[in-house]
Amino acid sequence: MFYFKDKDVLVFLIDDNKLQLKLLKNQFVTCKENYKVKTYTSGEEFIEDITENPIPDKYITFIILDYFLKTKDNKDAKDGVQILNIIKEKKPNFNIVLLSAYENDENIDFSKTYKELGAIAYVKKNEFSFTIINNIIQRIVFNRNLKRRRKESRLSTILFILTALIILITFFINKFF
């Protein structure tokens, strides 16, 4: 049976802050897990890339998405929630972590509403962001593998019972007929 390994995990980092993006990418690249990491400075850039280069379903895909993506250079950029909605429409199986330096904006309290928005987690930007995100990724990969093992175990049990029944039936047929 196929189990997910670190190389089967794709991590896409989307943040308009190039320094933050570089720091987070370096932490992912140098960690013991062997995730495939790609960075984007806008959500639109990410959407365009996955539209032109679709991601196979064999990967567990994580998008670490900054909420505030508008910059002086790109004032028309969509915010993280708008990008999240587009991603969920195109690829509902993607795991999205909402990332922000702020707990909320004037309309949204991220720490309370991230699930309603379609994200799997909200992480506040600080010195522990990478550790928290990496733990989230490891937990999801572990849980997916555990589900596969349980399914495999049920199949093995069914096969064992069927084999035992065939042997018993064969024994009784040979003994009594």
Q: How is this fold's topology laid out?
A:
Layout: E1 9-14, H1 18-30, E2 36-40, H2 43-52, E3 60-66, H3 80-90, E4 95-100, H4 110-117, E5 121-124, H5 129-176
Parallel strand pairs: 1-2, 1-3, 3-4, 4-5
Task: Note the main attributes of this structure.
alpha/beta; Rossmann fold; 5 strands
* Overall mean pLDDT: 85
The CATH topology turns out to be Rossmann fold
**Total beta strands:** 5
* Overall shape: elongated
Specify Rg, calculated over alpha carbons.
Answer: 22 Å
Task: Estimate the strand proportion.
Answer: 15-25%
How helix-rich are the residues, as a percent range?
40-55%
Strand order of the largest sheet: 2-1-3-4-5
Question: Overview of this structure, please?
Answer:
The chain is of the alpha/beta class and 177 residues long. The protein has a single domain (7-146), classed as Rossmann fold (3-Layer(aba) Sandwich), CATH 3.40.50. Helices cover 51% and strands 16% of the residues. It contains 5 helices and 5 strands. The protein has helices at 18-30, 43-52, 80-90, 110-117, 129-176; strands spanning 9-14, 36-40, 60-66, 95-100, 121-124. It has a 5-stranded parallel beta sheet with strand order 2-1-3-4-5, sandwiched between helices. α3 links the parallel β3 and β4.
